[in-house]
Structure formats: structure tokens, C-alpha cells
Amino acid sequence: MNLLVRWGTTLGLVGSTLLSTFLSGNAPVLALSEQKIKQILDQVPVFLITNPQGLPLSRPLEGQNAQKGSSVTGVYMSQQEAQTFVNQLRNAPEKDPKKAEMLKSLQVTAVPLGVIYQQLQKSKNQPNRLFFAFKPVDREIQGAMELLRQSGQDIKQFRSVPIFLVRFAPDKGYVPIELGSDKKEYIPLFTSKQDADNLLKQVKQKFPKADIQVVDVDGIVKTLQEKNDKWLEQVVFFPSPEARQYIQSLPKNSASNQAPPAQQKK
Question: Considering the entire predicted model, what is its pTM?
Fold first, then answer.
């Protein structure tokens, strides 16, 4: 996909967003290849606001430490929330006819999360590098904070996109699932707490101490970049129910690279 190759539309971004830190600092020698990391991240669709030509809505990055020429683009984890923002822009009063027409032409466009990662990698050493402001789903943020508080952490804010993993126990490994006709084992990284809860309910029947660990997408990427653990080759992202519904609406050849339905390993 070449949707993110060019950037140009400059408008303000509305709402609570989190600046991506996928590439904070210099990463050491990769445990997994860049292509493998991209393939893992490609399992999750994210949503940009673009014009009809596919140029994402962006604005110059401001602030004391902002690099000259850098821009930031909003990335929504929810298609519905992205569409709500588009509707707000379309309905906002605008005296400039050209700008009003441009606002009316905005649309929600899905891209794989791996494309975002790839663009960040390409621009990391450029003076006008790209940044992305992620907009997590509010209920997932609240669910993550509740779990962290239950584990004894005093947390008032979760500043990233939460990822949920099911463990056999706090001091045990992650629960694998079986995917595909060959029933190969994978370790699911859920973007939805609801999906993690569903797996936890099954596991608890045999493992009463099973729980859900909360991490963030930046931590996942950092681990994939830095660690050399065999189990990392088994991880698979599971999009939220809303995102899966979007994937299922795509033509079969477009959705073929997305994760199939999960089955708990017996």
C-alpha cells in the first residue's frame, strides 16, 4: 500500500491523542526482522482521516522539542470514532468555501498498523520525520486501568494503546490458542479486553489463578525489536470485534492476511 507515502493536508486534530513512541531512541540489533515485525502488526487495521486522493489529515508538530518540518497525523483504533470526527468536521461552520468543500470530502481510510510502523522506520533519521497521534478506544483504556489497579498499581492515566494477554498465573506463561486448519499454537495479543475476558473465562476452569496482563503497543514493539526469545515468533495480534467486523466486510483476498477466528488450545 502506498497510502502514507505523501503528506500534505494541514488541519488541526481534535480530541485526546497519544504521540506514538514506536521509535524512541536507537533500537539495538533486531530480534525479529523488520518485515516480520511489520507482518505481525499488519494483523491490526487502524483508521486515518484522508482526502479523496488518500492524503492523511495532518498538522505541523508544535512544541519546544518539535523538529522543524515534522508533522503529526491522527490514528484511530476505532473506525466509528474516526467517522464521528469526520462528521464533526463536515458539520462545523466554515466561511471559506474552498476549505468547507475540502472538509466535506474527508473520509475514513483503513491501513494496517504495520504500514504506520514502516513509515516511522523510513523517516526516523529524516529532519522532517513523521509522528502519529494514536486515539485509543476509551473503554479499552478504562478496562486497562481497572486491571492495573486490581493488581495493586496506583495508576491515574494510561498513555498508550493497551494490549491484553492472558496468563496461566501471574508467574506463569501466556495461554496459547490454536489457529488454522493445522491447529498451530499462537500467543494472542488482544486489542480488546472483551476478547481477553472471553479466553480468561475458559482458562479459569482449569487454572483458577489465570489472569490478564496489561501492556501497551509500544512495549510490544520494543520487545519485538530487542528480545531474542523464541516465543515471540508465536505472537499474533487480534483486532477488536469492531475491527474484525470491518475485516469481514472486505473482499476475501483483501482480508486473507488478517488473523482467523481463535480457538483455545485444549
Answer: 0.79
